Amino acid sequence: MRRSSRGFSLIELLIVVAIILILAAIAIPNLLRSRIAANQASAVGSLRTINTCELTYLSTFNVGYSSMLSYLGPATGPVPDSTAAGLVDSILAGSGNNSSKSGYNFVYTPTTDSSSGRVVHYTLTADPQSTATGTSYYFTDESSIIRQNATTVATASDSPLGG
Fold first, then answer.
1. What pLDDT sits at residue 3?
2. SS3 of 71, please?
3. CA-based Rg of the chain, rounded to a whole angstrom?
4. How many domains does the chain fold into?
5. Which of 11, 16, 83, 86 could be disulfide-bonded to 75 (CB atoms 3.0-4.6 Å)?
6. Running DSSP on this structure, what letter comes out for residue 70?
């Protein structure tokens, strides 16, 4: 008597599952590396944006650089002012001098001149929230040179990014 051969045997199904698992084991690490590279590129782009916005803020409001990162954020009224300049989105502006975007934490540190009360210097760091979101640390200041460190918080003495 002949047996009906409808469907798949258990061995065939196990082989298909094994092939899928092998492909996933190859693809997932590449996907994670791609995500980290995208987060790092976003962090560098955000630093460039903030540097450009600080120069715009300096020339527009004539009060020095911004006292807080959030001052670069969206305007609250019909006309931007020095506390709501409308230069960056609310995510990048954050609250106070801290913001988070694309797996990175941004910390803005202004330095005020004691005689004029103007912010004459600032530093900005971008640190990964975890090793799953990024592996490089970044630093910039009013010179607009972005510096990188692969192991710890970047400073003004670290190597600048190429290009």
1. 63
2. helix
3. 24
4. 1
5. 86
6. G
